[in-house]
From TrEMBL:
Homology family: Belongs to the LysR transcriptional regulatory family.
Naturally occurring in which organism (per UniProt): Falsiruegeria mediterranea M17
GO biological process, one term: regulation of DNA-templated transcription initiation
GO MF annotation: an example: DNA binding
Organism domain of life: Bacteria
Pfam families for the chain: HTH_1, LysR_substrate
Protein name per UniProt: HTH-type transcriptional regulator CynR
Keyword Cell membrane found: no
Amino acid sequence: MDSRQLRYFAAIFEEGALARAAVRERVAVSALSRHLANLEAELGTPLFERLLRGVRPTASGARLYEHARMILRSMQAASADIRDAENEVAGEISVGFAHSAVKAIGVPLMQRVSQTYPKLRLHLSEIFSGSTTVQLASSEVDLTLTYNQLPDPRFRFQPILDEELVLVGRPDVVGGRGPISFDALLDLPLIILRQGLNTRAVMDDPSLLKRLEERAQFQINSIVAIGDSLLSGIGCLVGTEFILKDHIDTGKLVTRPIVKPKLNRTLYIGELSDRPATFAFEAVRQLCVELTVEAIETKRWSATLAH
C-alpha cells in the first residue's frame, strides 16, 4: 500500500464513481481500476460494491477511508511544513470552536492570521463540545476549543479558562436579580442548552447536571432558539452571561448569580496526542491562547484564566 493507492482510493470513495475519480486524478479509468484491484487483493477484502452507476463503499472501505483521510492529510501537512520551514508559515489548519469561543475570538483570529500569516489557510467551524473527540480522532479538525473534556490518552486537553454559570431569563420568569441557590432554581421552568448528543458542556459537575436534566422540560441545541425561548418567557437557562450578552445588554434578559454551590465550566484547547508538530499548527495554537487571554483581560469575555 502506498500513498498513490490511498489517494486514488480516497478519490473513488469521495466521487462515488471510477470515471469521476479518474477525471479528478487525471488518470485513465483502467489505471484507477487496476490500483483499486491491487489494494483490495493486498487487504484481502472488497472495498466497494460495484453498482450499475458508480460504486458504494463496503464496511471495510468506510473504515479504510477514515485511516486514508488522516494519513493523506498528515502527509500534506508534513510536505507544506518542511517546504515552507525556512520561509513563511503556510499550510492548512482546521479549528473547531464551541459557540462562546468562536464568538469571542473567531474574527480576531482571522484578522491576526490575515495580517501575520498570509499564506496560511484557516478553516473555522462551530462544533458541539460533546463531539470533540470524534472530530479530532477523524481529523475533521486539528485543534479544538471546547468545554468540559474528560481525560483520554488519545488527546491532549489543556484548560484555558473557567466561566461561572448564572441563571438567565426574563425578570418575571427568574424572579428577580439577587443570588439564587441551585435547589431553588430547580423549581423554575428550565431550558438546557444541549450540545450534540449530551449536555456535558453545560457545567463541570455531572451530579448537578443530572439533577438539572431531570427538571428541565426543554433541551435545545440552538443558541438562536434558546434566545428566542427566553425572550418569549417559556423558561430560563443555566448558562453563561456571554452567550446571551446581546439580549442582556438591552435589558430584555437579566441574570442571577447561582450559589450553594457556585457552578462553573472549563474551556479546553485540545489536539491529538500523537499529532506531529508543524509550524502552522503551533502558530495557530499560540494565537488561540493569546487571543483568549486578551479577550479576558479586556473584559470582552467574562471568565478567568484556568490554573
